[in-house]
Amino acid sequence: MNVQQAVAPRSSANGFSRRRVDRETGARMDNRTHSGKPSSANFGNSGKIIQVLLVVPPLPSSNKLLITGLTNGSKIGGVAGPSRDRLIYVLTYLVGQHVEVLVKNGSIISGIFHSANADKDFGIVLKMAQVNKDGSIRGQKPINDIVKRPQTMIIPSRELVQIFAKEASLSSDELMNGHSREKRKDLLIDSVISHSHQVEVERELERWTPDEDDPACPELENIFDRTWNRNWDQFETNETLFGVKSTFNEELYTTKLERGPQMRELEIEASRIAREIEGEETHDPHLAEERGINFHENFDLDEESRYSAVQREVDDGRYEENEGSLLDACNAEACGGSSGSVVSRSYSDVLSKKINNEASKKVNSEAQTSSTFPSVDEDSHILADKDIHVSGSTDHATQPTSNSPAERSSFMDDENRLDKKKTKDQDVEKSLLNECTDRVASEQAQTSKSEDVHPSVHVKGLPPGATTYDPSSSVPGNKCPADDTSDSAISGKLSSASETANPSLRPGSSTSSTSECVGAGSVSGGPGLSPSSSVGSLSSEKSTLNPNAKEFKLNPNAKSFMPSASLRPHTPVDGSFYYASNMPAVPHMHGIPVGVGIGPSFGAQQPVVYNPQAAPLQSPQAYIHPNGPLYGQQMILGQPRPVYYMPTYPPVSSVFSPLILTAISVSF
Amino acid sequence: MDGANGEEFAAGCILAIKTTLGDEFEGQIITYDRPSNILVLQEGTTKPGARRNLRLLKANYIKDFTLLGRGEDPLDPKKCFIDLAAIQAREDAAMRQAEIEAERIGVGVTAEAQSIFDALSKTLPVRWDKTVIVVMNEVRVCSPYLPDNVSGGTPAANERVKKVLEFERKRLQARSPGQF
C-alpha cells in the first residue's frame, strides 16, 4: 500500500526548504510514487540532514493514496491485522489537523498533518510546520531567534517520537459533524478576530508569596474558621479607624426579649415549637429541602424546579380545608385592612384599621418586625404573666390594648368587627381577608360581651393551649361553630384568646397590656400557627385561587341575567380602582345596584361596596383576581354577612341576583 | 517492544505512561501497531463526543507505564467511517488559515520584531515588507523598531504609529522584564 508520500524532490527553489530528508524515503518514493510530479531523487547520500527542496504533490492525489492505503491496508505486505487498520484509520483521520510532533532531540514541531508513509515506518509530512520548541537549546529561546516561515516538513520515522493531536475525537459522529464544524470555522469568532493566539504569551507566572511576614495579613486561612471567635471586631476597628460609632439597637428591629428567670423555660418551649414546625410533613419540595426531609416524591425534579422555579401547584386538599374553616374567621374589615400579602399578618392590619388607624400602624409595624412565631417572647410573656394580660411581644392583637378606654368602648360596640379581626389577626396564615362571617362574629361578640368573668378561664386556657400545642384541644369558649377542623380549633383558641384580650382591654390600657394582648393573640397564635405554618407556607406558594374570595352559595331566587346589547365588555378589575373605592368610588357607583359584579359581565360595574359608612373600609389588600367573580369584594365592609360564596373560576353563569344585593344592603 | 507488552496493549486499556523524554500522561489505548511500534492513545474525558486529544507514540520511548484499568474499545469497528472529502476540506481550510497567519510572520526578523508586529496588528493594519513593518500602507517602521524609526505617512498617522509603538513597547517590557 502506498500512502501518499507527499514528497517529490525538486531542485527548483520555491521558497521552501526542507528540514531533513530521509534517504530511504526518497528512494522509496522514487520507486513507488504515484504522485503526478517528477521524482528525481535529489538528495545526498549521507544519512544526515539534507536540504532538499521538495514540493508537495497536489492534495487530491494524496487523498487517493490514502484511500488506497485504507482499503488495501489489510492485504499488503504481510502486515495485516486490525491494529494496522486502526492505525491507518487514525492517521487518515488526522489529516488536516494541527498536530505537534515530538522528535527525538526533544524539539516540538507543530504543523498541519498532511500524510504519513503507512507503507513502511510511518514517516510523516507536516505542512506549514514550525519548530516550536527547539530541544537542542534547553531553556528559553534566544532573543534574536530568527523567525522562520512555516514550511512543509518531513519527519522520518526514526526521529519520530510522538504525534500529539489536540482535540481530535475519533467517534464517527464527530466526523459527520466535522463538516459542519468546518463550515462553522469560516464564521468569525472572537478569538479568530483578535488573533489572540498571536499575542505574546504573558510572562511566566509565579506563585505569590508574601513579601516579608506582612503583619497586615493575619493567617489568611484561619480568619473565617471560627466566626464566633475571630479576634477581630469590626465595630471596634471601625471606631478606631474612622470614628464611626455603631448605633445598632436590636430592639428596634425585633421585639424585646424579656430575659428573666423564666428564660430557660421559654427557650425550651420555643425550641420545641420550632422543632415541631420544622419537623412537619410537607409536600412542598422547597420546604422539604430546607428541612432536610428527603422529598422522595418526585425524584425527577431537576435543579431548576428544586431550587429556583416558583411552585405553582396548589395543594388542593389543604387549601380547601383552609378555605372552609377560615371563612368564619375572616374579618371583613380585617380583609380591608390587610396588606397585600395573603400570608402576612394582615390580621393586625385589619384590626388596627378597624379600631384605630394609629394603633394599626403600630400594630403593623410590630407585625412586620416581630414575626417569629414560636418566639421566646411569646412564651415568656405567656408564662410570666399570670394575670389577664397575656403578654406577648408579637404583633397581632395589639391594637385593642393601645386604645384608650373610650376607643375600646367604641371598639366594643363594633365588637363584631373587632372579634372578627382578632380572630383573623390570629389566624394570620389563613387570612381570608375579605370575607368574615357575621355568624361567627356575632357569636364571638356575644361571647366576649358576656364573658367578662371568663377571662381568667380563658387565660388559663391559653397557657395550656400554648404549651400543649394541640390543635384539637378544645379551648373553653370556643365559639366558632363553623370551625370543625383543626384550623377551627385553632381559631377557636384564637378567638378565645381574643376574648381574653377583650376583657383585658377594659381594665386599663397600658403599653404593657398592649403587648400582652398581643401576646394573647400570639400565644394561641403560636401553637395555633404551627399547623398553619405549613398552610402558610402553602399559601405562600403562588396560588391561582383567590384566597380572599368568599365561598359561593347559589341563590335559587336569583334572576338570570340577560346581557343587554349595551353591555360593556369585561374589563379586568382595576385593582387600584377598587382599592380606592372607599370614598371616591362610592358615589361613583351609586347608580349601580350595589355593584355586585357577577362574573365578567359585570366588569364595568366595579365591585364597590355601596356602603355609606364605609369610611374606614379598606379593600386594598383584597386580592382581586381580575377574572374572578367580583362580588366577593363587596362584602368587605365587615357587616355580618350571611352570604358565603366560593371563588369559582369556571365563570359563574351570569346570574344577576337582586336578592343578593338587597341582602347586602340590608345588612348595612 | 517485546511481546509481553503487546498483550497488554489491548484496545480500551487505560494506561499511565511516562516517556523517556520526561512526559507523563494517561490515555486509553485505541490501537497498537507492532510492526511500526506505534501506540495510539486517546486522552481526555470519557464523555462520548467530547473532543479528546490523540497521541501516537512510538512505543520504544515508553519508559514506564501503569495499567490503570480496562475500558471498552473506544473505536467501534463498524462505525469508523471517514469522509475523505470532509477531511480534504478540513485540510484545505487549515492550510488557508495557516497561510494567512504565515503572512503575518516576518521572514528573518527577530522575535522581538515579531511581537511588536503582533502588538501593532491588534489595532492597526500592518504588513511585512521584508523586515520593515508597514503600517496603514504608508508609515514604515524599520529595524530596530524604535519610535525613532517611524517614518513616512502623514504627520498625523506618523504620530499615531509612534504613540502606539511606544505604548506597545512599554507593555511588552512590563510583560516580560528582561527580555526586551
TrEMBL record, chain B:
Residues 80-173 form the AD domain. InterPro entries: AD (IPR047574), Lsm12-like (IPR039683), LSM12_ABD (IPR019181), LSM12_LSM (IPR048478). This is Protein LSM12. It comes from Cocos nucifera.
